[in-house]
Design a protein that fits this description.
5 helices; seven-stranded mixed beta sheet; binds biotinyl-5-AMP; alpha+beta; 26% helix; single chain
Amino acid sequence: MYGGGRFEVRRFPELDSTNRYLLDEARAGAPEGLVVTADHQTAGRGRLGRRWEAPPGANLLASVLLRPTLPLEQLHLCTVAMALAARAAAAAVAGIEPVLKWPNDVMVGERKLAGILAEAIPGAVVVGIGVNVAWPPPDGGPGSDQVPPALRSATSLWREARGPGPQILPDVGVLLDVLLDELGDRLNDLADTEGRRRLASDYRRVCTTVGREVTVSLSGDETVTGTALDITVEGHLLVDIGACIRTITAGDVVHLRI
Ligand code: BT5
């Protein structure tokens, strides 16, 4: 699959959604490794029709085109690869150690630092990521009183950055370079069974959901509550719901206790 090739990055001042743009390019035959970034999205997508918010120029908004030769049930590993890469990149540029909340969140404690949206079409997967870099600002910083109530549990690299002296504002371009470096290594892992096992076990080690009491909203109106036991080699979540152990392939997780 990826084969250690180079990424080609197309940068836009504004797009509706970098995922939407790259899915159209994928349908038109664009190659694996095409990356699209936007300084601003007018209709940034979250999962299930939700929105991804970011003021112009503040945060990293990027999508990567993959053409993995993976069976359908293993496609979630594309999100796993991106989540691990984002965690490593955040550590490198801001000196922090985020954790991963299943299925698609990069967190600092209970605050969301980044979200990942993988969308598949025949022959391609577009993996989009929004990493909060300069927004939301540190508490009491410029604009901190304008963060909408629904996003008060979001955090950013600027808000979290650790190091000597005053908090440093990491550079979006540097973050993208580091993220793509980290992602390249992990995409190579997607290509073979051993590599995929490594991805799943790396994810398991930093997944804050494992061991927690959780409620998971599934498609339809179904919800399940239980103890998150483990991550499978496909990157899915195993939940002990008392009567049995359920394998959850997609869903929204709420951690019930800190
Ligand atoms: C996600 O969805 O977390 C996936 C986000 C993916 C965004 C990237 S940006 C580049 C690429 N192009 C796109 O169009 N999208 C991708 P989900 O798990 O559904 O979370 C969405 C929820 O997170 C929203 O309903 C808000 O509650 C919250 N949210 C929105 N913006 C946020 C932000 N900047 N930081 C933290 N939380 C946010």
